[in-house]
Amino acid sequence: MKARRLLPGFLAVLMLASAAIGGATVVSAQEQGVTVSVESSTEEPVVGETVTFNVTVTNQEGGNGVVDVSSIMLRTNQEHYERVEDIGSLAPGGSLTVQMTSTFEEAGQKNLKAHVSAERAAGGNLRAYYSPVTVDVQELDINGGLSATTNNSDETTVSFTNYGNVELSDIEITASVDDAVRDRRDAFDVDPNEADSVTFDTGEYGTDSVTFMAAYTARGDRHETTRTVTLDQEVAGEIRLTGIDVTGSGSATSIDGEAANVGGTDVESVLVSIPDTDGISPSGGSGEYFVGSVDASEFATFELTANIESDTVPIEIAYIVDNERVTLTQTIDVSSVNTTTGTAGQNQPEATSTGTGQDPPGLPILPIVVGLLVIVSLGGAGFYLWNRE
Question: Does the record's keyword annotation contain Transmembrane helix (predicted)?
Fold first, then answer.
C-alpha cells in the first residue's frame, strides 16, 4: 500500500530530472513568450532558383526578461539548408528578422522548418522554437516563342512570349529573307507568362515570306527559336480587261469590255487606248476611252473602235495606284472578226440557165406514161386467162 503512494511522486521527480539533463527543450513557436514566423519569396521556385526566406523572431510583451537568440536554421527533418549563428538579444516586445537563402536541386514539395535556438539571458535553458514553411519546387522549363502580325502599312509586329518558368534576357530578334538578315531588333527582358514586341518594316523586303529568329539567355545559356511567316500584305490595285466582246461593222472593229480592278486598293485615272501601228489604226477618234477611277474589286465598262488588219490587237492600259503611274499592255484576239463570212451587201454568185424560157430538156414524160399503161393492161389480161384455165 505504501509503495503505491510513493509511485506518483517518484515519476514526478524522474520527469524533472530528465528535463534538467536533456539540454535544449523543443517547444512550439507560440510558447514561453517567444514567437517565430517565416515567409518565402516564392511558393513555387524552380530547380536551381535562389529562394529567400525571411525568418522573424519576437520576444512578446510581458515576457520574462531578455532572450538571447543563439542560431537560426532552415531545415527539413533530414536536411539542413542554411544556418546563421550569433543573432543577438531581444528585450520584451522586441523582434528581429533574419534573411536566409537556399536553392533546391530536385523538384518536388519541400516541407521546411525555421528552427530557432534561444534562451533567457537570466540563467534560462536553451530552447528550440520553430515555424513551418512549404515550397513546391518545379522542374526547369525554358520556352520562348514567336508570333507575328502584319498591318496595312506593311509593318510586321513580332511578339516574343516567355512560355517557361524562368526569366529570359538579352533578347535579340532578326528578320531574314532567303537566309540573309534584313534587320534586327532588341527586346526587353521577359518574365514567365509575359511578352514583349518589336516592329519591322517588311514592306521593303519584296517578299511574302520572312523568317524571324529570337536569340535569348536563360540561366546563363544562350537559346534560339525561329518562326517563318507569310506576310498578310495588302495587294495594290491592278486593272485587267475582262468580259471582252469583239464585233465587226464593215472595215471597223468594235471592242467592248470591262476594266476590272483585281487588286486590294483603289486606282485612279484609268485610260485604255489602241495604238496606231502597222495594220491597226483608231477609227473616228474612238481609239481611246477614259474610264476614270475604279474602286478595289470593282469594274467600269469601256468601248474602243479601230481598223484592224491583224488577228490580235494590243490595248494599252494606263492608271495611277498608290501615287504611282502604271502602264501595261493587254493583247486581244480579234481573229473571229477577220474571218471571211458572207454579209449583206457583198456580191454573191447567182444561179444561171441556158434555155429559151421553156423547161430544160430531160426524159420524155408522155412516152413513159403510155408504156406503163400498156404494161399494166397486158399484165391484167394475162392474169385473167390464167384463172380461166
Answer: yes
